Amino acid sequence: MGRMGWNGMGLSHPTRSSGTGIVRFDRMKNLIYGLVEFLLQTDSTSVILALRGRNYDNYQVVVNEMENVEYRRVMLDDQRVKIEHRFVQQKWILQQNSIHIFLSHCGMGSSVEGLYFQKPILCLPIHTDQFANSIAIQNSGVGQSLFEPPSSIVESLLKPQDYHDYTFSASSVTKKVLTMWRNTYYEQAARLMSLEMKHAGGVKRAVEEIELLVNLNGDLSRYAPFYQRYMLDLMLVFIVLPAMIVLYCFVKCCKRSRKQKKD
Question: Pick the residue with more confidence: 146 or 21?
Fold first, then answer.
């Protein structure tokens, strides 16, 4: 029986009442309804959800308020839906061959663990770096995201709150999970990503690099030119050039405005 694992927000850490890892009630409702519909369309599947604190409370409210008899039957079937509201061993769960999709908030740690164990990821970001991680996961083909980024950079700058206030429907959850379920494209992409990560050397390689830096007394002049050591190339691309473009456009607009006044 295939399983779809979910990293509930704050899976490995206590969920504080005022924490930022809380799934809003409307998202929780659409998520659960979408997963139930997925279970109804795939007879041999099951779901394990790790929910703690307020997330677990919201989940219970959603289930208790379900009016659809078939939905309630599925959610109350402990062979199809298993709820963990205490600490669970996330790495151990991800190593199981019966887990085929990892539903995660896409923090960096969870994303790396999911990909390391070759699990395609369905992203449900909540804050900070999770949005960027979910976009990267979707663009790299190792998963999909319930968060759809703005269509342009300008739009994201004008409405930055849309990142945190985004919504998704229950049908979109079902559609994305069905698309990813046992899909060789996503499985192959996750497998290749895992191979690349393991080839990089992992913790052992990281320790070796740190020890090398210590032995060099922090001197990287042999490995990188001065403009890279001081990130001048990044400052040029992301600060200086955009500032010059804005300044140029501003000057052009001012000249055009003066010319129109004279005419």
Answer: 146
- Superfamily of domain covering 2-200: Glycogen Phosphorylase B; (3.40.50.2000)
Nearest to 119 by CA among 196, 41, 70, 186: 186
Q: How far is 229 from 221, CA to CA, in rounded Å?
A: 8
Cβ neighbors of 213 (< 8 A, separation 6 or more) are 220
- Residue 127 phi/psi, 5° resolution? -160, 170
Between 138 and 259, where is the model more confident?
138
For the chain, give every domain's residue range.
2-200, 201-230, 232-262
Q: Which two tokens stand for residue 129?
A: 């770096």
Residue among 103, 13, 98 at smallest CA distance from 49: 103
Kindly indicate the confidence band of residue 206, based on its pLDDT and cuts at 50, 70 and 90: confident
pTM: 0.76
SS3 per residue for 12-31? CCCCCCCCCCCCCHHHHHHH
Sheet arrangement for strand 99-104: 81-84, 45-50, 2-6, 99-104, 121-123, 143-145
Backbone φ and ψ of 206, nearest 5° = -60, -40
- Distance, in Å, from the CA atom of 30 to the CA atom of 142, rounded to the nearest integer, reads 23
Quick check: 94 and 113 in contact, CB under 8 A?
yes
Distance of CA 233 to the CA centre of its chain: 29
> 213 phi and psi, to 5 degrees?
-65, -40
> ∠ CA(17), CA(19), CA(24), 5° rounding?
85
